Amino acid sequence: MLIEVKVPQLSESVAEATLSAWHVKEGDAVARDQNLIDIETDKVVLELPAPSAGVIVKIIKGNGAAVVAGEVIAQLDTEAKGAVAAPAAAKLAAAPAPTAAATAMPAARKIMDEKGIAAADVQGSGRGGRILKEDVSGGTKVAPAPATVAVSPAPTLAAKPALPQPNVVSAEAIIADRPEQRVPMSRLRVRVAERLVQSQATNAILTTFNEVNMAPVMDLRKKYQERFEKEHGVKLGFMSFFVKAAVAALKKYPVINASIDGNDIVYHGYFDIGIAVGSPRGLVVPILRDADQLSLAQIEKKIAEFGAKAKEGKLSLEDLSGGTFTISNGGIFGSMLSTPIINPPQSAILGVHATKDRPVVENGQIVIRPMNYLALSYDHRIIDGREAVLGLVTMKDALEDPARLLLDV
Amino acid sequence: MANKQFDVVVIGGGPGGYVAAIRAAQLGLSTACIESESYADPKGEVRLGGTCLNVGCIPSKALLQSSELYEQASHSFVMHGISTSGVKMDVATMIKRKDNIVGQLTGGIKALFKKNKITLLPGHGTFVGREEERWRVDVNGEIVEASHVIVATGSTARHLPGIAVDNKVICDNVGALAFDSTPKRLGVIGAGVIGLELGSVWKRLGSEVTILEALPDFLGAADQAVAKEAWKIFTQKQGLDIQLGVKITKVETGKKGRDAQVSVEYEIGDETRTLQCDRLIVSVGRVPHTEGLGAENVGLALNPRGYIAVDHNCRTNLPNVWAVGDVVPGPMLAHKSMEEGVMVAECIAGQKGHVNLDTVPWVIYTHPEIAWVGKTEQQLKNEGIEYRIGQIPFAANGRALGQGDTTGFVKMLACARTDRVLGVHVIGNNASELIAEAVVAMEFNAASEDIARICHAHPTLSEAMHEAALAVDKRALHF
Q1: Do A133 and B450 touch (CB under 8 A)?
Q2: Among residues A74, B329, B351, B364, which one has the fewest Cβ atoms lying within 10 Å of its Cβ?
Q3: Residues 6+ apart with CB under 8 A from A300
Q4: pLDDT tens-digit series, residues A217-251
């Protein structure tokens, strides 16, 4: 029986997708649920499991084709027997999966793995679209080494006739000094770029800053780290504290947790906090749902899970949809201070940075404390300076005296 | 009776022709192949396979193998602790073995024709005209009609003016493969591939071989590092007397006692010398063969050197007339002809195809073998391309040592900027096989680092390719 293989339902905000990589070809036999193709949306890469066992008799849309939800992209014959398709290359047990499995030449693969370049982000110029070393190495110029073997002319017994030697300098040699490399943006990056620009254009963004003495949190961590890990199987990080502190502020100043819809302010009665993480494909923001109801341990576990999924490109559309507020941690890369861009349709974003020992004044004395600059970017269309500043102060107070989180004061 | 009609008629059953015919048949085209030569067929029946199978590649490799074994038994076994004495070569047996191989292969192609339902038309094919979208070709008086014609008439040995080739005493490749006994003294005019290979065969069997070459350079088409190494090995180790920059002035045959003799007078530098030999091989290149094709009857265009003019898809100036192999420009190599034959058959069937001449390998089957693909160092210099070299001698290779022959090296040239492999040159045992890896790599636009990062079995000669790739980056592990 001939059945249709269709693009699955994408989320509401995702209308189109791109067929990224077919893992089977016409004539291949497939098992039920075997991953047939990677479909790339703006947010995430979806796998398409075979609806039943059979043979792929026709591939209607090929790699790179733009498709919509429900579109038929292949035909499967459930009764035929065909050549067994080798299962998709990159299903290694060990994480992380190689970024450039079958589409890149060996040297290119190494460079891509080292530089964290994803295969989807590179236009391969080799045979069949393969990614060559030169596509990802930036055409580094290597000074030609002196020949390892002296090359002298073959022995001649008579005078050599002077053959005119055309001295053609190739175009390659001329441009060798200023290498350039053109790499098309991945679909994800294009979309991220669009949204960031859109956010800046519509939101009246400004940023308010404050600083936090992280010593109390650090002391707490030091005191209970071992026990925490033993009890919960996950390390006690800083992010869980930041999340809890943010939630405390959002509860007190609900407009920071709201969004604009036309001329309405929509206040959300729930707290879905987006945690910005880097992935090989770019920045993605998985959502901690109902963060107010999660314990610190649960938050840490979730974040660790997101990190692993992001690395493998396995974040689902569900993981990435929604969110009422976002926290971005530039500190892990060493950022001291920044002005984060709001993640639409949210109205605010908290940026936390690197904790550094700095001299501060306490009770008239200069002391050294581990300080962290907090930045709250907010949409001034609905959030006024008062709420923003006080919201940030609330976060600071909660972080500097974690007991307040416990007591809800 | 109506004329026979076919979708495709191939004129010539050599490597280009028979392969084109088989591919066309595979693609569902009704195909016929015209062949006129019977070569040494004892029944005088037409034989397929062309020059390559009958009087070229195949027989020469058979003789090279036999003579190489004789050479090893006589001189190389002793290092292994094997003592031999009284090793003799019975030339008649060697020639018979060669004949059997040729017979087997040409018979095999006939069987392939039957299997693929290709009609073999014995006789000489000549264009006579065109009628209603079909070409008319005369084969021994019978007219055959075809929508497409593929000309694959190949090449013949070039002869020198004033030197009459009788293929008994003065021979081209045909006679040189059929000597009835080892000539005491063998003269060879032309130090090209054929001259070197045939000269090698008889040298090993005991001939005193003198090779006279007109050009001042030895193996000018090869990378000069390889040419230099080859020169050393052939002239010093193997005792071939190769003279360059020679101008032949007179060739005379005569008799001395019972034996025929050839006397070759030549100028070299300021001297005039004479070479006396019992047999003379004339191997001064090959020329495209269009005699009797009837090109002029239909206006088939030839270029000034006598080749059939074609575009990159082997189309001639006439609609639906194609030409492949030695009769068109390009390297005169059987595998190039075969690739062109396949391309043309596929184009006729509506597919797209092309032959990449930059990745056609060249091989010389002397011992040591010489093989290369891509550019030589001289070419890169002339073209102004910056490159890096990785060169590894087989002396550093465990397998070669075990085999008792560490002659030669692998030399890899890569672009200094992109690291793409631009040329690979091998001189040594099995070079003809080893070069295949380089051809595949270059077809996939490999960088030298790619080859360096691919696992090669140990211990093999192919590791030398791997090491050469590492050497490009100055990080060979075993040298």
Answers
A1: yes
A2: B351
A3: A232, A234, A235, A236, A237, A239, A240
A4: 999 999 999 999 999 999 999 999 999 999 999 99
Q: Which chain A residues are closer than 8 Å to B269 by Cβ?
A: 157-158
pTM (2 d.p.): 0.61
**What pLDDT, in 10s, does the model give residues A142-167?**
443 333 333 333 343 333 343 443 44
pLDDT digits (tens, 9 = 90+) for A43-63: 667 778 888 888 888 888 888
Q: At what angle do helices A296-312 and A239-252 cross, to 10 degrees?
A: 110
Question: CB–CB of B31/B171 below 8 Å?
Answer: no
Task: Please identify among residues 223-242 of chain B the ones whose CB lies closer than 8 Å to any CB of chain A.
Answer: 224-225, 227-228, 231
Bigger pLDDT: B297 or A148? B297
Look at B228 and A152 and tell me if their CB atoms are within 8 Å: yes
Residue A227 has, within 13 A of its CA and on its CB side, a CA count of: 5
**3-class DSSP state of B174:** helix
Q: Cα separation of A267 and A253, whole Å?
A: 11
The residue among A284, A281, A310 whose CA lies nearest residue A121 is A281
Q: Which two tokens stand for residue A343?
A: 């993640």
How many whole angstroms separate alpha carbon B264 and alpha carbon B248?
7
* Least CB–CB distance from B245: residue in A153, A157, A176: A157
DSSP annotation string for A118-167? -GGGS---SGGGPBPHHHHSTT---PPPPPSS---PPP-SSPPP------
Q: Which residues of chain A does B244 touch, with a Cβ-Cβ cutoff of 8 Å? A: 155-158
What's the rounded Cα separation, in Å, for the pair B266 and B282?
14
Q: Which residue in the set A108, A127, A151 is minimally distant from B443, CB to CB?
A: A127
What pLDDT score was predicted for residue A215?
95
Burial of B202 (0-12, 13-18, 19+ CB in 10 A): buried
Write out the catalytic residue numbers of A. Answer: 380, 384
Q: Phi/psi at A391 (nearest 5 deg)?
A: -60, -45
CA distance B196 to B364: 8
- State how far residue B329 is from chain A, nearest Cα, in angstroms: 22
